[in-house]
Specification:
Layout (H helix, E strand, L loop, with lengths): L15 E4 L7 E5 L11 E5 L11 E3 L5 E4 L10 E9 L5 E13 L7 E2 L3 E7 L7 E4 L2 E2 L12 E6 L6 E3 L5 E4 L11 E9 L7 E11 L7 E2 L3 E7 L6 E5 L1 E2 L11 E7 L6 E5 L6 E5 L10 E10 L14 E9 L12 E6 L7 E4 L14 E6 L5 E3 L5 E4 L14 E9 L7 E11 L7 E3 L2 E5 L7 E7 L11 E4 L10 E5 L4 E6 L6 E10 L7 E11 L10 H8 L5 H39 L27 H4 L36 H14 L49 H7 L1
Parallel strand pairs: 1-7, 9-16, 18-25, 26-32, 34-40
Antiparallel strand pairs: 2-5, 3-6, 4-5, 6-7, 8-11, 10-14, 12-15, 13-14, 15-16, 17-20, 19-23, 21-24, 22-23, 24-25, 27-30, 28-31, 29-30, 31-32, 33-35, 35-38, 36-39, 37-38, 39-40
């Protein structure tokens, strides 16, 4: 390290202070001087901010005298000091002295007012807050030198109203409550004008606004606007609003401290009314939740209380209007008749004769304070079984009530009765009349089946299971009682009846009986009240028994058992057979008529000469090119052929078949071809010498071509080698050619 060189005191320049905003310029700041004077003189220069660096031109130096001048006003808030470098050179530019520092300090002046950080400060405090409760802090800044009084700020409240409810800390700017008595309902917002001043309160000043909102507490109970309210509602109305009770609350609208809650304390023991709060108006809405009856009670006097949703503050005063009386008058209206018993259930015996009174079904009118007359009518009587007295409501039978019936549901008949008053407008009510049709034991049991077969040996299949049916419903049916007719006691020597279950019994032989048909009179009785019985004949065919107890002669047994078929069953069988035969005959006639109409229509519709295209399709030979099956010249020139000529021989006829019994008459003109063809068809059908497989060979015209594909396009899963065609020989002479080709 180099040893510190000793600098002459004259070249060391102390800091220079200059006041900001100095207006007399240029202003001499200092004169620098070097001890090394040269014969020709010394050249001085300075460099640094304010000279050759931004900001330019603030300082300058006389290069011969070394005087430093201030050329512009300074602002301490922009730059509080400048550090320059001073140089001393000879005339040749050689440094005479080492560069020295030149520091210029800008002295502050109180040229800046304090500034609040915001124009409006906002704070909140609950109403009724104790004195000394701090609300918020306001603060300001000053651009002047903080180490001088130019930036020493003091705060104060210039204006807050006459009450003086708030104070401010002069040093910190904190605003607090100064006295009790803050009431939101009296004044909800306080606007304070605060001031900040520098020079410890004696300098420059500035102002701002401080807005303080008082937060609501429940210090005011709700109160009814009056002590009594009167309302009116129609009877039987449910779910409707009767009216409103009005309240007033000084607390903040919409807050829990403001929202009211209503209670019905007295006057509604049945709970017919309800009261709720209208969230928008805070009023109480009274409504009906149960139907009211003017004839039972025509007015109500309710005691209603009100309070807030939020509990009241202990310091809040009690309200003298927390209770109100609500008087409700029930207005009388016309009410519909009422069937006290609905549905009405009654029982009527089956077969009750017409005109029998079965019940009196009436309604009552709730309007006891009004004189009204009720009338009745049948609204629903599907079977038209009933008649109703329109004035007295007496129900009678119109016709005999039968069972079973399609109008009964589980033995019950349902009818609807309409009751109507004579008010204006009239009102009506519907009553349901449920009539149970009681079963009467009016049918005796029937033996099923009425015939049977059994072996004639006791203990070896000599039993027959008998059953019975009854058209009556329980309890007038089973169990059935079977017994041999008491009028023929001799039957008990050869036969016995034993109960099998509630509907069946077992007939058994007691002694060996010869084969044959036996008619046994049986007495059948049901379990009704009173019981019904009937004597019936049982046809029993006794057959020859085998070892296993079965009948050996089945034909005899079946024939004899058939004697038990009833006449009704036989008539049904015969009628069904006749109906089937008639339908078959009609179907055959219809098919035949369609065939003839088709043949006639084809010939009439075609305008072409179709005679060249009548082909012999039953010839299974050369296909459509084979035109030799029939001589077509006979159709083209019928005049050349005499009726006495011998008819041509049919080539496709079997060898054993003969010629027709008589020759057919040829058509006299080409227009008679249709008749000629039909006659040929009839002759072929009626010829007894032709086998049944022979058919008419002359067909109708079928067009010049076919839209169908050739038979060769049909794909078969079998090849010709896999099939046997020898059976074609058995099909007659028409298939011999196919048999020769493929056999």
């Amino acid at each position: 390290h180099e040893a510190p060189r000793r600098v002459k005191r004259a070249w060391v320049i102390p800091p220079i202070s200059v006041s900001e905003n100095h207006k007399r310029i240029p202003h001499l700041l200092v004169q620098i001087k070097s001890d090394k004077q040269q014969p020709g003189g010394v050249i001085y220069s300075i460099k640094g901010p304010g000279v050759d660096e931004e900001p330019l031109g603030i300082f300058s130096i006389d290069k011969f005298s070394g005087k430093v001048f201030l050329n512009a006003m300074l602002d301490r808030e922009e730059n509080d000091r400048y550090r320059l470098r001073a140089f001393a050179l000879d005339l040749g530019g050689v440094t005479l002295e080492d560069p020295t520092d030149l520091e210029i300090i800008v002295v502050d002046q109180n040229d800046n007012r304090p500034l609040f950080r915001q124009d409006v400060f906002t704070g909140r405090v609950v109403e009724g807050a104790e004195p000394g409760t701090c609300v918020m802090t306001v603060d300001a800044t000053d651009a002047d030198d903080p180490d001088t009084d130019n930036a020493a700020l003091r705060y104060s409240i210039l204006e807050q109203g006459a009450a003086g409810m708030f104070s401010i800390n002069a040093t910190t700017g904190e605003i607090c409550t100064a006295r009790p008595g803050l009431d939101r309902e009296t004044m909800g917002v306080y606007n304070l004008t605060v001031q900040a001043a520098d020079m410890s309160g004696d300098g420059l000043t500035t102002t701002a606004m401080a807005v303080i909102y008082l937060e609501d507490i429940n210090d005011n109970p709700p109160e009814f606007t009056k002590e009594e309210f009167s309302m009116e509602v129609e009877e039987q109305a449910v779910g409707v609003d009767v009216g409103k009770v009005f309240v007033h609350d000084k607390d903040l609208a919409g807050s829990p401290s403001w929202l009211a809650k209503f209670t019905i304390l007295e006057g509604d023991p049945e709970g017919a009314f309800a009261i709720r709060t209208d969230p928008h108006t805070n009023d109480g809405v009274l409504s009906v939740v149960k139907p009211l009856d003017h004839e039972v009670r025509d007015r109500f006097e309710l005691t209603v209380s009100v309070q807030n949703e939020r509990p009241l503050e202990p310091s809040a005063p009690a309200s003298p209007r927390a209770l109100a009386t609500v008087r409700v008058r029930v207005r009388d209206v016309n009410e519909a008749p009422v069937f006290r018993e609905n549905p009405r259930r009654i029982s009527v015996l089956e077969g009750t004769p017409p005109g029998t009174p079965i019940t009196t079904y009436t309604a009552s009118d709730p309007d006891t304070h009004q004189i009204q007359t009720l009338s009745y009518a049948l609204l629903y009587d599907p079977a038209d079984w009933l008649q109703l007295d329109p004035h007295g409501g007496t129900v009678r039978t119109k016709r005999e009530l039968l069972h079973p019936s399609a109008f009964l549901q589980g033995g019950w008949y349902i009818a609807l009765v309409l009751a109507r008053d004579d008010a204006e407008p009239p009102l009506s009510a519907t009553g349901t009349l449920s009539i149970e049709i009681l079963e009467v034991n009016d049918h005796a049991p029937q033996l099923q089946p009425p015939a049977g077969v059994l072996c004639g040996r006791p203990g070896r299949g000599g039993t027959l299971l008998l059953g019975a049916t009854d058209d009556d419903r329980p309890p007038h049916g089973a169990p059935f009682h079977f017994q041999l007719s008491p009028q023929h006691p001799q039957l008990a020597r050869n036969w016995s009846l034993a109960r099998f279950n509630v509907t069946h019994a077992v007939l058994a032989v007691l002694a060996e009986l010869p084969e044959g048909l036996y008619s046994l009179p049986l007495l059948l009785r049901d379990s009704g009240t009173p019981p019904r019985e009937q004597q019936q004949l049982l046809n029993v065919s006794v057959c020859h028994c085998g070892r296993d107890g079965t009948c050996l002669d089945g034909a005899l047994a079946a024939a004899t058992a058939g004697a038990g078929i009833t006449l009704g069953a036989l008539m049904i069988i015969l009628g069904s057979t006749i109906l089937l035969l008639v339908l078959a005959a009609l179907g055959a006639a219809r098919v035949r008529g369609r065939r003839r109409a088709l043949r006639k229509g084809l010939l009439q519709r075609s305008r072409d000469d179709m005679r060249d295209n009548i082909l012999n399709y039953d010839e299974q030979g050369g296909g459509e090119e084979d035109q030799d099956a029939y001589d077509i010249n006979q159709l083209r020139h019928p005049e050349l052929f005499s009726p006495r000529a011998k008819p041509p021989l049919r080539r496709d006829a079997p060898l054993s078949s003969g010629t027709p019994m008589a020759p057919r008459k040829l058509p006299s003109s080409p227009s008679d071809i249709e008749d000629f063809i039909n006659e040929g068809l009839e002759a072929a059908d009626s010829d007894p010498s032709v086998p049944p497989y022979d058919t008419a060979l002359i067909y109708d015209y079928e067009g010049s071509g076919s839209v169908a594909s050739p038979l060769s396009s049909i794909v078969s899963s079998l090849t010709d080698e896999d099939q046997d065609y020898d059976y074609l020989n058995e099909w007659g002479p028409r298939f011999r050619r196919l048999a020769d080709l493929y056999g």
